[in-house]
Design goal:
It comes from Streptomyces griseus subsp. griseus (strain JCM 4626 / CBS 651.72 / NBRC 13350 / KCC S-0626 / ISP 5235). Keywords: Oxidoreductase. Residues 356-372 have a biased composition (Gly residues). This protein is an alpha/beta fold and 388 residues long. The chain has 2 domains: 2-141 and 293-386, FAD/NAD(P)-binding domain (3-Layer(bba) Sandwich), CATH 3.50.50; 151-207 and 243-288, FAD/NAD(P)-binding domain, CATH 3.50.50.60. The protein contains 7 helices and 18 strands. The strands form 5 sheets. Strands 1, 2, 3, 4, 5 and 18 form a 6-stranded mixed β-sheet that branches. It has a 5-stranded parallel β-sheet with strand order 6-15-7-8-11, covered by helices on one side. It is globular. 44% of the residues are buried. The structure holds flavin-adenine dinucleotide. Residues 14-20, 41-44, 49-50, 54, 63-66, 107-108, 136-138, 140-141, 183, 295, 298, 328, 333-335, 338 line the site of flavin-adenine dinucleotide.
Length: 388
Amino acid sequence: MNISGVRELDVVVIGAGQAGLSAAHHLRRVGLEPDVGFVVLDHAPRPGGAWQFRWPSLTYGKVHGMHALPGMELTGADPDRPSSEVIGAYFAAYEEHFDLRVHRPVEVSAVREGSGGRLLVETSEGTYAPRAVINATGTWDRPFWPRYPGQETFRGRQLHTADYPGPEEFAGQRVIVVGGGASGTQHLMEIAEHAADTFWVTRSEPVFREGPFTEEWGRAAVAMVEERVRRGLPPRSVVSVTGLPMTDAVRRARERGVLDRLPMFDRITPDGVAWDDGRVVEAEVILWATGFRPAVDHLAPLKLREPGGGIRAEDTRAVRDGRVHLVGYGPSASTIGANRAGRAAVRSVMRLLRETGGGTGAETGTETGGGRPGREAGAAVAAPVSGG
Ligand SMILES: Cc1cc2nc3c(=O)[nH]c(=O)nc-3n(C[C@H](O)[C@H](O)[C@H](O)COP(=O)(O)OP(=O)(O)OC[C@H]3O[C@@H](n4cnc5c(N)ncnc54)[C@H](O)[C@@H]3O)c2cc1C
């Protein structure tokens, strides 16, 4: 700490979801010590990243393609348990096993230019002055609500996926779900079991994809999002370019008419929604399953945004400021992408530290064991794996 109470260290990781924990794991493996070489800050109350806030009916069995964090498998989880509990417990065990010492709840309000080539990270527990920042703040904190004429006149309830409580609350009601993504279809299929009626409204015709989700297909989808980020455009979600998986549940819902889609309405009325061609739908609820945007407002003082609205990044490194790395952003906004981005960001940060004289005490560049000395991973969830 210097005399002004600002804590100097090498790296601040903002966010302890999949991406932040992966980065923290790799920082530890290259020899940086938590609270000395790096610190992980998260404003959520508990371990689990955004998963801790997901609705109880999103059970672990319904989560597709959740990749384990590097170095510790998630095994033996009950598929009927809420994913918020399963993944919360897994992340907690992970943080404990690798001794990552996440500081929470700590709000990061701004990252700005410091002195001597350092950044200043302003937080609810004081100011840090790192040489590099790994930003892993996800999207959950920035739900996207589109605006439509008349929205404020609606007498019913409007809510977003981020506040979705599960389907039971909608018993006997007429519910409009807006949005053609995975969340929208999941909400509809659940709510249709309880509601008096449901309506699905999407901007474009939803595309359902038959057949298995191959690695090749996944790579192509990631490449499309990557290209947008490279051009400085706001990233689209990886899921938005993969199409909707055609599962047995989706097939059944389509047969029952639950996934019959209406085009986007033109306005919202006090009692529902209306189209210019005279059609109206009356409803008590509008559920906006319209996605999320990157939660990067705290980076605004660094002026990283391009005219296109996005932050241009090469791999994970922000083009306008090579001290800032974005993980879980754009092409790495999936559990597997977040894992890889964490590792790539640490490699890049270690190069930067070597150039700027940081990384004191760290074996810069080579990964060492990781894990708390003398500690075994928790039996239910942990089995060390190689790589990551
Ligand atoms: C409903 C839903 C289901 C999904 N299912 C899947 C799936 O099955 N498979 C898959 O691969 N992906 C899935 N995803 C995508 C998934 O969110 C990502 O794969 C991954 O979990 C995101 O990890 P992350 O670390 O980037 O973000 P998060 O898990 O959102 O973590 C970000 C962390 O940053 C913290 N934070 C944010 N802002 C600040 C701040 N200013 N100061 C301090 N802390 C801050 C938050 O508290 C949070 O803990 C799903 C997404 C949604 C919305």
